[in-house]
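Operator note (shift B, R.M.): manual run for Lipid A deacylase requested after the automated queue skipped it. Running by hand, logging everything below so the morning shift can see what happened. Input copied straight from the record, untouched. If output looks odd, do not overwrite the archive copy; leave it for review.
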Amino acid sequence: MIASRTPWIAVAGCTLLTLPTPGLAIDSTSLEFGAGDHTKMVRAGLQWKWQRQWWKSNGTHLGGYWDASLAQWRGNRFQDVKGNTQNITSLGITPVFRFQRDSMKGFYAEAGIGIHYLSERYDNGNRQLSTRFQFGDLLGIGYVFQNNLDVGIRLQHFSNGGYRQPNDGVNFAFVRVSYGF
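Run finished. Output pasted below as returned.
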Protein backbone atom coordinates (compact mmCIF):
# COMPACT_ATOMS: atom_id res chain seq x y z
CA MET A 1 0.00 0.00 0.00
CA ILE A 2 2.80 2.47 0.87
CA ALA A 3 4.65 1.70 -2.38
CA SER A 4 1.51 2.47 -4.42
CA ARG A 5 1.27 5.92 -2.82
CA THR A 6 4.94 6.82 -3.31
CA PRO A 7 4.40 8.70 -6.64
CA TRP A 8 1.66 10.83 -5.07
CA ILE A 9 3.79 11.63 -2.03
CA ALA A 10 6.70 12.65 -4.31
CA VAL A 11 4.49 14.92 -6.46
CA ALA A 12 2.90 16.53 -3.41
CA GLY A 13 6.30 17.07 -1.76
CA CYS A 14 7.83 18.67 -4.85
CA THR A 15 4.81 20.93 -5.26
CA LEU A 16 4.89 22.05 -1.62
CA LEU A 17 8.59 22.89 -1.91
CA THR A 18 7.91 25.27 -4.81
CA LEU A 19 4.83 27.03 -3.42
CA PRO A 20 5.09 30.76 -2.83
CA THR A 21 6.42 31.64 0.58
CA PRO A 22 4.02 33.13 3.13
CA GLY A 23 4.06 36.90 3.17
CA LEU A 24 4.33 37.33 -0.60
CA ALA A 25 1.49 39.42 -1.93
CA ILE A 26 -1.16 37.87 -4.13
CA ASP A 27 -0.79 39.25 -7.67
CA SER A 28 -4.28 38.51 -8.99
CA THR A 29 -7.54 36.74 -8.38
CA SER A 30 -9.73 34.87 -10.85
CA LEU A 31 -13.20 33.45 -11.37
CA GLU A 32 -13.94 30.72 -13.92
CA PHE A 33 -17.10 29.12 -15.25
CA GLY A 34 -16.93 25.88 -17.20
CA ALA A 35 -18.79 22.84 -18.42
CA GLY A 36 -18.06 19.45 -19.93
CA ASP A 37 -18.92 15.74 -19.71
CA HIS A 38 -22.37 16.40 -18.11
CA THR A 39 -20.69 18.49 -15.41
CA LYS A 40 -20.62 22.22 -14.64
CA MET A 41 -17.90 23.90 -12.63
CA VAL A 42 -17.30 27.23 -10.95
CA ARG A 43 -13.80 27.97 -9.71
CA ALA A 44 -12.12 30.79 -7.79
CA GLY A 45 -8.36 31.24 -7.74
CA LEU A 46 -5.45 33.24 -6.38
CA GLN A 47 -2.28 33.78 -8.42
CA TRP A 48 1.36 34.56 -7.61
CA LYS A 49 3.57 35.67 -10.54
CA TRP A 50 7.02 34.22 -11.03
CA GLN A 51 9.87 36.68 -11.20
CA ARG A 52 11.70 34.56 -13.77
CA GLN A 53 11.38 35.10 -17.53
CA TRP A 54 12.70 32.86 -20.32
CA TRP A 55 13.19 33.22 -24.08
CA LYS A 56 13.02 37.01 -24.14
CA SER A 57 12.82 38.17 -27.76
CA ASN A 58 11.05 40.89 -29.78
CA GLY A 59 9.17 42.27 -26.76
CA THR A 60 7.85 38.87 -25.64
CA HIS A 61 8.87 36.24 -23.11
CA LEU A 62 7.82 33.04 -21.38
CA GLY A 63 6.85 33.66 -17.77
CA GLY A 64 4.29 32.21 -15.45
CA TYR A 65 2.50 32.07 -12.16
CA TRP A 66 1.18 29.76 -9.47
CA ASP A 67 -2.59 29.28 -9.55
CA ALA A 68 -4.22 28.05 -6.32
CA SER A 69 -7.88 27.19 -6.86
CA LEU A 70 -11.04 26.09 -5.11
CA ALA A 71 -13.80 24.70 -7.34
CA GLN A 72 -17.26 23.22 -7.12
CA TRP A 73 -18.28 20.57 -9.68
CA ARG A 74 -21.92 19.61 -10.25
CA GLY A 75 -22.55 16.53 -12.36
CA ASN A 76 -26.07 15.86 -13.64
CA ARG A 77 -25.69 12.14 -14.47
CA PHE A 78 -24.33 10.62 -11.24
CA GLN A 79 -23.64 6.89 -11.81
CA ASP A 80 -24.91 7.50 -15.37
CA VAL A 81 -28.51 8.11 -14.26
CA LYS A 82 -30.03 11.20 -15.88
CA GLY A 83 -31.13 13.71 -13.24
CA ASN A 84 -28.99 12.23 -10.43
CA THR A 85 -26.51 14.85 -9.26
CA GLN A 86 -23.03 14.64 -7.82
CA ASN A 87 -21.36 17.59 -6.10
CA ILE A 88 -17.58 17.60 -5.74
CA THR A 89 -15.27 20.20 -4.24
CA SER A 90 -11.79 20.44 -5.75
CA LEU A 91 -8.68 22.05 -4.27
CA GLY A 92 -5.74 22.53 -6.64
CA ILE A 93 -2.36 24.10 -7.26
CA THR A 94 -1.01 24.56 -10.79
CA PRO A 95 2.18 26.08 -12.17
CA VAL A 96 1.08 27.91 -15.34
CA PHE A 97 3.51 28.93 -18.09
CA ARG A 98 2.43 31.99 -20.09
CA PHE A 99 3.83 33.32 -23.38
CA GLN A 100 3.15 37.05 -23.33
CA ARG A 101 4.38 40.53 -24.17
CA ASP A 102 6.95 42.14 -21.89
CA SER A 103 4.38 44.83 -21.02
CA MET A 104 2.14 42.03 -19.61
CA LYS A 105 -0.74 43.47 -21.72
CA GLY A 106 -2.38 42.14 -24.85
CA PHE A 107 -2.77 38.58 -26.12
CA TYR A 108 -1.20 35.56 -24.41
CA ALA A 109 -1.16 31.77 -24.57
CA GLU A 110 -0.71 29.58 -21.52
CA ALA A 111 -0.36 25.96 -20.43
CA GLY A 112 0.05 24.12 -17.15
CA ILE A 113 -0.18 20.81 -15.31
CA GLY A 114 -1.22 20.83 -11.67
CA ILE A 115 -2.49 18.57 -8.93
CA HIS A 116 -6.03 18.58 -7.57
CA TYR A 117 -7.73 16.87 -4.66
CA LEU A 118 -11.41 16.01 -5.13
CA SER A 119 -13.77 15.67 -2.14
CA GLU A 120 -15.02 12.38 -3.61
CA ARG A 121 -14.37 10.18 -6.60
CA TYR A 122 -16.01 11.33 -9.82
CA ASP A 123 -18.70 9.00 -11.25
CA ASN A 124 -20.81 10.89 -13.75
CA GLY A 125 -22.16 10.41 -17.27
CA ASN A 126 -20.51 7.00 -17.83
CA ARG A 127 -17.10 8.47 -16.83
CA GLN A 128 -15.27 7.51 -13.67
CA LEU A 129 -12.12 8.60 -11.88
CA SER A 130 -10.87 5.98 -9.44
CA THR A 131 -8.82 8.34 -7.27
CA ARG A 132 -9.40 11.64 -5.50
CA PHE A 133 -5.97 12.97 -6.53
CA GLN A 134 -6.02 14.13 -10.14
CA PHE A 135 -3.71 15.90 -12.54
CA GLY A 136 -5.23 18.88 -14.32
CA ASP A 137 -3.72 19.74 -17.74
CA LEU A 138 -4.76 23.10 -19.18
CA LEU A 139 -4.36 25.14 -22.35
CA GLY A 140 -5.62 28.70 -22.63
CA ILE A 141 -5.58 31.92 -24.58
CA GLY A 142 -6.65 35.38 -23.51
CA TYR A 143 -6.16 39.10 -23.48
CA VAL A 144 -4.99 41.45 -20.70
CA PHE A 145 -6.46 44.96 -20.95
CA GLN A 146 -4.73 48.19 -19.84
CA ASN A 147 -6.67 48.16 -16.54
CA ASN A 148 -5.25 44.66 -15.67
CA LEU A 149 -8.53 42.90 -16.50
CA ASP A 150 -7.63 39.50 -17.97
CA VAL A 151 -10.28 37.64 -20.01
CA GLY A 152 -9.57 34.22 -21.47
CA ILE A 153 -10.78 30.78 -22.42
CA ARG A 154 -9.30 27.48 -21.26
CA LEU A 155 -9.55 23.80 -21.99
CA GLN A 156 -8.75 21.50 -19.09
CA HIS A 157 -8.45 17.73 -18.76
CA PHE A 158 -8.51 15.93 -15.40
CA SER A 159 -7.00 12.45 -15.11
CA ASN A 160 -4.92 10.44 -12.67
CA GLY A 161 -2.38 9.74 -15.41
CA GLY A 162 -3.25 6.04 -15.59
CA TYR A 163 -2.19 5.49 -11.99
CA ARG A 164 -5.34 3.45 -11.25
CA GLN A 165 -8.31 2.27 -13.32
CA PRO A 166 -10.93 3.33 -14.21
CA ASN A 167 -9.43 6.56 -15.48
CA ASP A 168 -11.86 7.89 -18.09
CA GLY A 169 -10.79 11.51 -17.64
CA VAL A 170 -13.00 14.60 -17.46
CA ASN A 171 -12.81 17.52 -19.91
CA PHE A 172 -13.96 21.10 -19.38
CA ALA A 173 -14.11 24.31 -21.40
CA PHE A 174 -13.88 27.49 -19.30
CA VAL A 175 -14.39 31.21 -19.51
CA ARG A 176 -11.93 32.90 -17.14
CA VAL A 177 -11.93 36.45 -15.78
CA SER A 178 -8.99 37.63 -13.68
CA TYR A 179 -7.96 40.94 -12.18
CA GLY A 180 -4.33 41.83 -11.43
CA PHE A 181 -3.38 44.01 -8.47
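Quick read of the result: The radius of gyration is 17 Å. The chain has one domain: 2-180.
Leaving this for review. - R.M.
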